[in-house]
Automatic annotation (TrEMBL):
This is DUF420 domain-containing protein. The lineage of its organism: Archaea, Methanobacteriati, Methanobacteriota, Stenosarchaea group, Halobacteria. The keyword Protein biosynthesis does not apply. The chain crosses the membrane at residues 16-39, 51-71, 83-101, 121-144, 165-184. Coiled coil: none annotated. PANTHER family: DUF420 DOMAIN-CONTAINING PROTEIN, HYPOTHETICAL MEMBRANE SPANNING PROTEIN. Keywords: Membrane, Transmembrane, Transmembrane helix. InterPro entries: DUF420. It holds the Pfam family DUF420. It comes from Halorussus gelatinilyticus. It comes from the Archaea. The keyword Secreted does not apply.
Length: 205
């Protein structure tokens, strides 16, 4: 009974629920950036690198789930679309936990590049961050509507319109995040990784 009552309240007030959840998310992220949330352990460089790689994998799977979700809804397969989008949303929650742990633990890294490559990286990173922030309320709103309404009820809501905006902003943000990860950790950090692996390779000879 309590569950049905809560679901009805969410269904009747999706914008209010979206606002509350979005504000909570912003407070958590901004509090971590400002360093006013002393809840994170201090991390070693190896842990930071591991978290960076894990985050990239999570984001890749999330982007894949979004693409599949769009494909399935265009084919009219609501069940698969719903599963894909909830999977993507769950992965983004996991990303947020990993990212805030890395950021709060002092895991800031700087790209070893200069000139055009550096400014291109900064531009992509800036767009990625802006889109990540902008996509929060639209993604949350689309998910809130999807979870609180039946497929037939969703036709009378803004779910489809909000969902298209969410997919565009969210998808591009994820794609840029993956590209900047590759530039930061592999393209311009490849020499550091090669130097770190050199003793291991030599020891096997």
């Amino acid at each position: 009974m309590a569950t049905s009552t809560a679901k009805r309240r969410v269904r009747d007030n999706p914008r209010a629920v979206t606002a509350v959840l979005s504000v909570l998310g912003y407070v958590l992220v901004l509090g971590t950036f400002a360093g006013v949330l002393p809840i994170y352990p201090e991390l070693e460089r190896a842990t930071v690198d591991l978290l960076s790689h894990t985050i990239a994998v999570v984001n890749t799977f999330a982007l894949t789930a979004i693409v599949l979700g769009v494909r399935w809804i265009r084919r009219g397969d609501v069940r698969k679309h719903r599963a894909a989008m909830l999977t993507a949303f769950s992965l983004i929650i996991l990303f947020l936990v990993l990212y805030l742990t890395k950021l709060g633990g002092g895991g800031e890294k700087h790209i070893d590049a200069a000139g055009l490559a550096y400014y291109a990286y900064i531009a992509m990173l800036a767009v990625h961050i802006v889109l990540s922030a902008v996509s929060v309320p639209v993604v949350v709103h689309a998910v809130v509507l999807g979870l609180s309404h039946t497929p037939s009820e969703l036709r009378d809501t803004a779910h489809a319109k909000v969902g298209r905006i969410a997919v565009a902003a969210w998808g591009l943000s994820l794609a840029l995040g993956i590209v900047t990860y590759l530039l930061l950790n592999h393209v311009y950090g490849v020499e550091k990784y090669a130097m770190a692996l050199a003793p291991l390779v030599a020891g096997r000879r």
